[in-house]
Amino acid sequence: MDLQACLNGERSAADAPVTAVALAAAAAEVAALGVASVHVHPRDATGATTLIGPELAPTVAAIRAAAPGTAVGVTTGAWAQPDPARRVAAIAAWVGLSTGRPDFASVNVHEDGWQEVCAALTAAGIAVELGVFDVPAAELLREHGIPAGAVRVLAEVQPHAEAAPLLDALAWSPLPILLHGEEDTAWPVLTEALRRGLPTRMGLEDTLHLPDGTRATTNADLIHAVLR
Questions:
Q1: Residue 28 to residue 218: CA distance in whole angstroms
Q2: What percent of the chain has pLDDT over 90?
Q3: Sign of the CA dihedral 50, 51, 57, 60?
Q4: Helix, strand, coil proportions of the chain in percent (round to 5)?
Q5: By residue range, what is the domain housing residue 52?
Q6: CATH code of the domain in which 151 resides
Q7: CA-CA distances (angstroms) from residue 148 to 49, 120, 121, 144?
Q8: Which of 53, 77, 110, 162 is found 20 to 30 A from 128 (Cα to Cα)?
Q9: Domain count, the chain
Q10: How far apart are CA 14 and CA 188, in angstroms?
């Protein structure tokens, strides 16, 4: 099973790990269960998601030390830096990071500046995971083509949506497709991904609940449920 763990997203510290120490511990737990990669939203001192190299590097380095061999990915979401030029500049500076440099980063195709973000990541030696939220985003990606450095498409089925239309719109893509949902679609879409033999992901970013509706305490709880 090609499984990624999404450890925190934009959740608060009450719902998911947010500090470097907590994220490293969570990564070690899911790595012990066979997860090969983790996706995280590193935080600054105020708890906000950050794209600033010296602020995100300690989180990436801590995860790498706690879970050797596990690929570490981060977000480049526009909510962390709405100005495209500043976002690109911050990401371009990641080239100077050492053990704190991510292995890959997700780029949302519907966001302004996404192509420039992809180029900055590639120049920094960081693989690109293309986030595609809906059919219009899939069509936009097809129009502009797969950017250099992209290693997969992250097909993200939104709440109350279905996987089939998005997958149909991405049928042309030569890249592997990692299919996942969020909130009410998290478990149905994961089941669909497994049925289709597609890579998928699970973690507290996507849902706080186990398949039976009970609250998950940790990311490892969710990964155990996937394996079951």
A1: 12
A2: 98
A3: positive
A4: 40, 20, 40
A5: 3-227
A6: 3.20.20.70
A7: 26, 11, 10, 12
A8: 162
A9: 1
A10: 25
- Sequence-distant (≥ 6) Cβ neighbours of residue 206 within 8 angstroms: 6, 9, 180, 181, 182, 183, 186
Give dist(CA 163, CA 121) in Å, integer.
28
pLDDT digits (tens, 9 = 90+) for 128-170: 999 999 999 999 999 999 999 999 999 999 988 899 999 999 9
pLDDT band at 1 (very low <50, low <70, confident <90, very high): confident
Contact between residue 51 and residue 81 where contact means Cβ atoms under 8 Å apart? yes
Mean pLDDT, residues 62-76 taken together: 98
| Residue among 149, 82, 81, 90 nearest 115 (CA) | 149
Instruction: Say whether pLDDT at 23 is over 90.
Output: yes
User: How are beta strands 37-40 and 127-132 bridged, if at all?
Assistant: unpaired
CB 81 within 8 A of CB 39: no
Locate 107 and state its tokens: 């780029």
CB 87 within 8 A of CB 117: yes
Q: CB under 8 Å to 210, separation ≥6 — which residues?
A: 216, 221, 222, 225
C-beta of residue 146 within 8 angstroms of C-beta of residue 107 = no
Tokens of 159: 């709440």
Q: How far apart are CA 179 and CA 195, in angstroms?
A: 11
